[in-house]
Amino acid sequence: MKKSSFSYFPIVVAGVCLAVFVMTADAIKIDHPKYREADSDIVPGRYIVSFTGDSSSAATSAITKAPAKAAPAPANSSPTNSLSDSGTDIEVEEEFNHSLFNGASIKVDTENPEDEAKTIKSILDRDDVLSITPIRLHKRPEVIQGEYDPKVAKPSVLPHAMTQVDRVHEELKNKGKGVLVAVLDSGIDYTHPAFGSGFGPGFKVSKGYDLVGDKYSGSNTPIPDSDPLDACGAASGATGHGTHVAGIIAGFDPATNFTGVAPEANLAIYRVFGCKGSVGTDIVIKGLLMAYDAGADVISISLGTKNNWNAGNPEHDVINKISAAGVSVVISTGNFGQYGYYTVGQPATAAGAFAVASIENQFQTTYSASFTGVTEDVEYLTTGSPLMKNGKVVASDATFTSTTDACTAASISSAVNGTIALTQRGGCTFEVKMANLATAGATGIIFYNNVDTVVAPVSAPKSLIPVISIAKAAGLDIIASLKKGEVTAEFGKEGISESDLGGSVDYFSSVGSEAALNFKPNIAAVGGTVLSTLPSYLGNWGVLSGTSMAAPYVAGSVALYVKSQGTTKQPASFIYEQFQNYAYPVKVAHSNITDSPMRQGAGLVQVYDAITQTTHVSPAQISFNDTATTNYRTKTLTITNRGAQTIAYELVNEVATGIAPYDVATSGYTPLEPAVDTTAEAGIKFSIKTFKLYPGNSQKVTVTVIPPKTNPADHIFYGGNIRVISKQQNLSLDTKIPYFGKVGITKTLPIFDTDGFPVIIDPQSNLYGPNDTFTYDRANKATRPISTVRLLTPTKRIKADLIDATTQKVLGEFFTGYQYMGRDLLVENNQYTTVFWDGNYVPASLAGVTDAIPAPAGTYLWRLSALKLLGDEANKNDWETWTSGPIVLKN
Predict the structure, then answer these.
(1) What pLDDT score was predicted for residue 825?
(2) Among 88, 690, 706, 857, which residue's CB has the most CB atoms within a 10 Å radius?
(3) Residue 87, Cα to own-chain centre: how many angstroms?
(4) How many Å apart are CA 638 and CA 128, to the nearest integer?
(5) What average pLDDT does this structure show over 667-682?
(6) Strands, DSSP E only, in 211-250?
(7) How far apart are CA 858 and CA 145, in angstroms?
């Protein structure tokens, strides 16, 4: 069957092996106002159809019943017409008859991609069809695994004192009783004692459903059942993600002194992941609707992609409608923070999603080891690889001088074989060093940091040998001992220590903003080094880190808030604002500088204050956009005194760190990975700075930003908090409204990486520049040209024009579907997007017609045109173009 497909394969460019995202696709054009393009994570041949009306049954039935041979229906055709084409089968995978979403997910099965496009076009022409969107995949969430031994007595590592959850439990006697929190994840081991060892009415896990089955991977057919149990087993490679998330929200086990955020809340578990693989957006939508129908007060979702557009799609539509209906939808932002800005992913970018960043826990389980010649025990971190065994330690670099030791096989000392290798962090990725040292025969790896903190090696779970990390000073002490003679180590002493990164934003937490400069993330919670429940096949307990852990912490916090309101049901938007008003803006690690709202949103959740305080500010967040126009520079705040006493207020601007996304002088507009802090102090003018509010009264205040005087070419992000100071702290605490903006004109940023890109490659990885001629024999797929681009900046659209090289006439588009593209990750992932060309194109003269036709033999040029971010499609100056060298097509 001839289908579009997606895969990864390595290509060597300038000596660097790149992790390439390849989009192999036939040139199918679906040019229709009701067709919603998706990004490159699509499932070939599968779509979500949105219908008008209250029921999808009749419409679904009509589009799946085909006559023996049918032509495409004309525009405005009757909804009763059957519109499938001869040779094309339409299979309905999910049907949604719901007040919030009326539609179906379908699979189009055909040998001919042109027939597939024609079928979709004909469905789009129906009066009862609102839109069609390709189904996308959300990959399984990645987390950092730590070790935890519940048999060892130790103080609590729960972060409830950081978030005021402990005060809500103790002072307000509120543990979320009767509130229902729904979780869309990998299922749950409800046999765990922290969940009451059962499922159904009367148990903590009172509701739920398995939407997919164990073998679902995201691309195959789900096998649902009514039991959300995660019984994958350790051999499956499953991480117990859903069980860990559920424990954070509502687990309770007095035997081990474990208490979740809302330990008396009930859980509704909707399993959307199998034991391995990804999940399609149609399954996520089904889970959202089931959670809503079950009466959930809060929905927790810890999944997503790195694409950070708030682009209209059915998944976002459903999230927005659920939120508008009063149910809070809490979603993790993603774990791509080390790759710089614009990494908050979908569906957290939806306007109705409460997007959560991750803060490091104040306390951590630590381990220590003794080394020959080192006077004090050395504390270390581990991330779940095999346990380190006692043994001899050697330096991976025999000279002790290299700053890139173990980055190549040749740099590794032969003494590593059969010993524990000590290597410095830096010079290349953890993964590269681990692979090289394992190949060299190391029995374990000790990373010592290149700065004074201890950072867990994030890729260690992928290592087949034990991996730990230690501080720089400890590593230098061991090096000094090695210079004197043989060093052996003994590992495994366990305890609790205060993390020197505790209370700061985790390095992995995705950085905003949303692509169009909308405010994301919205808030933060503890997601780094979080103890919670695991399935019995993984030992019942474990420490995981990720924004996956932060989202359920906020979901549990919202459950406590909902409980505190009794029968009063406040809009989800109000709840979001209340939590943002009283969040605690955290500092940059090892400093007194407030971190950027682009990293932490409004700050670390403070549940007690959100419940008890009565001053409310709306909106609770501000994006001042960029400085291209003055339209965004002034905003209006409404400050309301919901208490019983008169309060006097004063408004103050508190500046946060700026973020530099680029080092223009050194590397142009290649995004820094990670982005770095800088000084960028904006001023704020207030229409009124001091005022009093009687009970029940409100005051509108206009705030106008004065952007920092940084170089506009650097595109520095500035930020801070407008603090509404209460003059009567005994009656009302201060509130904060986070803001950010950008100096510079966003649409001047380049889209294409021009350092070797765009470029044409052949399947043998040979490169063809603008002065090279590429010859393609249609009969030989091994000669197909491959369009290769790397995106420095998100773009709403890329056009791919096929040009006659002789006449310079644009014939049409040789590929479509580059819509709402996020930027590529560069340093460690080295990603770029490629598209095979099969010799077909969509003629420009047939705009709105779906058929792609073969190009005749001849010589062609490719022209890629990318719309600048925030650019106007109608303005030719807002497009960036690249033209290839000659492509000779032989038929």
Answers:
(1) 84
(2) 88
(3) 39
(4) 41
(5) 94
(6) none
(7) 56
459: CB partners within 8 A, 6+ apart: 429, 430, 431, 434
Residue 699, SS3 per DSSP: strand
| Pairwise pLDDT comparison (629 vs 293), residue with the higher score | 293
Q: List the single range of 450-464, 651-665, 767-781 with lowest mean pLDDT.
A: 450-464
Strand-pair partners of 493: 368
Distance CA 314, CA 128 (A): 16
Distance CA 884, CA 803 (A): 10
Q: How many helices (H) and strands (E) in the chain?
A: 14, 50
- Tokens coding 877: 């100056």
Give the integer Cα–Cα distance in Å for 735 and 749.
35
What is the DSSP code (8-state) at residue 641? Answer: E
Q: CB under 8 Å to 382, separation ≥6 — which residues?
A: 146, 147, 367, 388, 456, 460, 466, 467, 468, 469
Strands 690-693 vs 647-655: parallel, antiparallel or unpaired: antiparallel
Average pLDDT, the chain: 87
Residue type, 306: K
Helix%, strand%, coil% for the chain, nearest 5: 20, 35, 45
Strand ranges of the sheet holding 144-146, from the earlier edge strand across to the other edge: 144-146, 541-545, 530-533
pLDDT tens digit sequence for 514-545: 999 999 999 999 999 899 999 999 989 988 88
Distance CA 747, CA 739 (A): 21
- Give pLDDT tens digits for 169-225: 999 999 999 999 999 999 999 999 999 999 999 999 999 999 999 999 998 899 999
How many Å apart are CA 824 and CA 342, to the nearest integer?
Answer: 10
- Angle at which helix 547-564 crosses helix 241-250, to 10 degrees, equals 30
Q: What is the pLDDT of residue 367?
A: 77
Domains delineated in the chain: 31-138 (no CATH), 144-361+503-612 (3.40.50.200), 366-497 (3.50.30.30), 614-747 (2.60.40.10), 759-890 (2.60.40)
Given this model, what pLDDT does residue 19 score? Answer: 39
Separation CA 568–CA 869 (nearest Å): 43
Name which of 56, 94, 101 is nearest 314 in CA terms.
Answer: 101
Task: Give the type of residue at 857.
Answer: A
- Poorest-pLDDT segment among 90-104, 386-400, 686-700: 386-400
| Cα–Cα dist 544/524, whole Å | 17
Q: Where on the phi/psi map is residue 728: left (φ > 0), alpha (ψ -120 to 50), or beta?
A: beta
C-alpha 789: how far from its chain's center? 22
Q: Rounded CA gap, 819 and 817, in Å?
A: 6
Continuous segment of H or E residues that includes residue 667: helix 664-667
| pLDDT bucket at 827, cuts 50 / 70 / 90 | low
Does residue 854 or residue 695 have the better pLDDT?
695
Residue 70, pLDDT score: 36
pLDDT at 7 over 50: no
Residues 6+ apart with CB under 8 A from 876: none
Q: Using pLDDT thresholds of 50, 70 and 90, give the confidence band for residue 28.
A: low
CB 617 within 8 A of CB 724: yes
